[in-house]
Amino acid sequence: MICFPPAKINIGLHIKARRPDGFHDIETLFCPVALCDVLEITAAEVFSIQLSGLPVEGNANSNLCVKAYRLLQSAFDLPPVAVYLHKAIPAGAGLGGGSSDATAMLQLLCDFFALPLATEQIRQYAVQLGSDCAFFLHRRPMLATGRGDILTAFPVPHLNDYFIILLSPPVAISTATAYAAVTPQQPAHPLSDLLMQPVEMWKDSIVNDFEQSIFLQYPVLSSLKQQLYAAGAVYAAMSGSGSALFGLFPDANAAARAAKVLPEVLFCGRLNIS
What we know:
alpha+beta, Ribosomal Protein S5, domain 2, Alpha-Beta Plaits, 2 domains, 4-stranded mixed sheet, 4-stranded antiparallel sheet, 12 strands
């Protein structure tokens, strides 16, 4: 059984407060992107995981797919499976690849073994694996609050015709390190209000709070954001805690022209959000 876990981007990211549990209250719009890993499971005599594609740091037991399997195995006494994971979404890029893989693994296992779990029950397992994992149960824009696990469907129809370019510089950023460098603050305006503006106005109003500290540490990321604007993006930002950046372009021709001159292009295509 095979599936294709997608990446995500964050449009706007407000880090509002540090919580007593050590996490942070945030406000962001998660949007799926058609850049995908490949995840397959088959029946096996012993559990195994095989990786290919982009490198993944750490040993196999720290992989979120393995943790997802162990989580359901402890509840349902699952037999072993062989896991094959091909990575196209870079790690440490703010694109949610590991979280997407983990959630896809939960869904694959539910289907493969016909586990009696409703979507809400799968969500409860997903949030144990990561704050943004539950988002990947959806394939549409979701406004995320709390620590990223409280999700509300948030249609953004004026984005349907835009194209996206993702840039992936050779920089990996630890989420914990990124949060440690940020001073939480309440935003002047709710992100939900700002998102209703025309996309052309987002440049001056929708921010990722990580950018201020991350760009000081990695000036190349600030430079790449400016290159996206110079290449014709109507809105550009870092995704999550970085290091990937994205630009939104008004049509396919504008995106294609930009992709020819921009460095570190990882993906170029339509922003399919409907």
